[in-house]
What does this fold into?
Amino acid sequence: MSDAIISIRNLHATADDGKEILRGIDLDIPAGEVHAIMGPNGSGKSTLAQIIAGRDEFEVTQGEIVYRGKDLLGLEPEERAREGVFLAFQYPVEIPGVNNIYLLKAALNAKLKHHGQPELDAFEFLQMVREKTRIMQMDESFLNRGVNEDFSGGEKKRNEVLQMLVLEPTFAVLDETDSGLDIDALRVVADGVNSLRSDDRAMLLVTHYQRLLDYIEPDVVHVLADGRIVRSGDKTLALELEERGYDWLRDGAAA
Amino acid sequence: MTGNTAIDFLDAAPAPRDEPRWRSQLRDRAWEHFSRHGLPTRRDENWKYTNLRAIDKGQFTTGSLPPGETSVAPIGADKLAVVSFVDGQVTQRQDAPGLSLRLSAELGDEDFGLGELVDFDTHPLAALNSAYFDDAVVIDVAAGQVFDQPLLLEYVSTARPAPVLTCPRVFIRMGANTQLTVVERFVGVDGAANLTNAVTEVELGTGARLDHYRLQELSDSDKGISLLRARQHADSRLVARSIDIGGRLVRNDVHATLSEPGASCRLSGFYLCLGRQHTDNHTRIDHDAADTNSDEVYHGVLGGRARGVFNGKVIVRQDSQRVNANQSNRNLLLSGTAEIDTKPELEIYADDVRCSHGATVGQLDDEALFYLRSRGIGERTARALLTFAFAEEVVRDIEVDAVRDYLEHQVALRLPDHERLEKLV
Ligand SMILES: Nc1ncnc2c1ncn2[C@@H]1O[C@H](COP(=O)(O)OP(=O)(O)OP(=O)(O)O)[C@@H](O)[C@H]1O
Ligand SMILES: [Mg+2]
It folds into this structure.
C-alpha cells in the first residue's frame, strides 16, 4: 500500500530472557485511518507499541517496520519522534526535576530543528501550550511541575495527550490511554485525540474497552493474542469481543 | 609541646594575645586538645574514608598576608546583612538595622557561651578551629525577631604563594519565636589551595526557625572542612542545606541535637564530585527528647575518579518516644571509576519510633531515558537533563530565589555536556 503511514511485516521480537513475545505481526495503517488493537493481558500489545517507539529492551529477530517509506527500526528513538512517531505510554514515567513545560519545549524544538524550521519564540510557545492545556482541561500549574511527578493516574494520561497535541505527530500509538480515566476525562482525552485526526495522520489505539471506541471511532479493529494478530474487522468486532471475550478467537488461532 | 603530628602540622601553639578571658580560655582548652590528639586518622571510625594526610603534610600558615585576586561571582540576592572574608580577613561588612551582629573583638569580656555546644572529641577539627579563629561572627536574634532576607557570610579563598589555614567561626543565638536565614558561602578563586576549617554553632530557642545554607564552591585545589552544630529547643526547626560543587578534599559535619519536644530538623544536601575530588558528608542527628522529627535527603553525582562519602547517624535516646526519622541518600555514578561509600547508622533505644533509611547507588534510569528520547530529546541531552534533574530534586527546595537560580546555573555549568542544557537555566 503506497499511502500507508506504517506497515509492519512479519515482526518477531523477543525479550531479554529469550522469550518470543511477538510472533509474526502484519499490520498496515493507511494515512487518515485509526486502528484499534485489543487483546488479552500479556498478549504483546505494549511490546509492539514500545518497539515502534524504539525501546531496545526487546530484540527484533525477524521482520520490518516501514514508516512513510523509511526503515523505522534503523532509527534511534529520538529520530523516530522527530520524524513524527509518538507513543502515549501505558505507564508514563515520573521525572522529578525536569519541568513539564521544559520537556514540551525541548521536544518541540528538537522536532522543528530536525525539519529545518525555526523555533517558536517564548511567547508563541506559551500561548500554544496554554491553549492545548485548556483543551485537555488541565490546570496550568501542571506545566511547572516535574514531568508526571505525583500526578494521579488520570492526570498522567491527560499529560500524555497534551504532549501529543503539542508535538502533532504523524503516527501516534496510544497504549491504554483510556485506562484509569473517569467518564469526563475519557471524553476530554477522546476529544483531544479526535482533534488530531486528519488525512495525513494515522493512529493506533491499544485498549481493553469498547467504550473508548464509541468516542474515537476506529476504521479497523485488530485482535492480538499470543503475539499474533488473530482477527481484524470493523468496529463491530469490538462489540463482539465485549460480549464473547477472547477465548473463541484463541481457539480459532490454534486450529 | 610533645612533637606529635599536631605540632608538626602547625609549628607552634597560637601566640598569646591581648584578648578577653573567654577567648584565651577557649583557645587554651582547644589547643590542649588538638596538641594531644592531632588530626584524626583513618583508624578513627568517623574518618575511615577521608584521609587528612594531605593536610598534615601541607605547610599552612595562619598569617595575614595581603590577599591576591579576590573577586568571585556575586549572588544577586537581596541581603539582610553581609560579612565577607578574604583568606580570613574581614573585607566587607554591612549591618542590618535591628540585628545584633558582632565580631568577637567587639564583645569584650562578656562570656556569652561561644564554644559550649562543640565537642572536640566528636569533631577534632573543631579544636583546631577554636584555637585559631580570629573574627568570630556572633549573631544574637532577640525573642520575636523575624528576618525574611538572608544574611550572607562569604569566605573567599585566594591563590597565594603559601597556602593559609583559615578558621571561620560563627555563633548564632536565636531567641524564642525567631526566624533567620543564613547563607554561608565558601568560594575559591582559581588556583587557591588553602585549608578552610569552619565551625558554625547555633542555639535555637523555643519556636525558632533557622534556614541555613552552606554553599561550597572552593577551587579544585582547595580543602574545606566544616561543622554545623545545632542545639534545638522546643518546637524549633532547623532546615540545613548543604551544596558542594567544588573543593579538592571536603569534609562536612552537621550535628543537630533535638533536645526538647516538638523540635525538628531537615537536612538536605547535594554534592557533585568530578575529576579527583573527594567529598565526605557526615551527619549526626540526636533525638534527645520525645516527639521530635528529622528528615534527611542527600543526593550525590560522582564522575571521573571522584570519591564520595555519606554517613548518616541517627540516635534516638531511650525516653525519646514518638520520634520520626527518615533518611535517604541517593547517588548517581557517571563513571566506572567514581566511588561512593554510603552508610546509615541508626542507634535506637526507644520503642515508639518510626525510622526509615535508604541508600542507592546507580546509573540513570533507563525508563526515564527512553521516555525523554521518545519525545525527540537526543540521548546525550537526555542524560545531561536527567543528571541535572537528579541534582535539582535537592536544589529546587532552596527557598531564596536568587540563591537557587545561581546554584542551578552553577550546577548545570559543571555537569558533563552542560552546553546541552543551555536553555534550561
Ligand atoms: N522485558 C521483558 N522481559 C521478559 N518478559 C517481558 C518483558 N516485557 C514484557 N514481557 C512479557 O511479554 C508479554 C507481553 O507483555 P506486554 O506488556 O506487551 O502485554 P500487553 O498485551 O501490553 O498486556 P496488558 O494488556 O496487560 O497491558 C508478557 O507476558 C510480559 O510478561
Ligand atoms: Mg500493555
User: Anything to note?
Assistant: Chain B has two domains: 5-260, 365-425. Residues 5-260 of chain B form one domain. The pocket of adenosine-5'-triphosphate (ligand 1) is lined by residues A 15-17, 19, 21, 39, 41-47, 57, 90 (CB under 6 Å). Chain B has a mean pLDDT of 91.
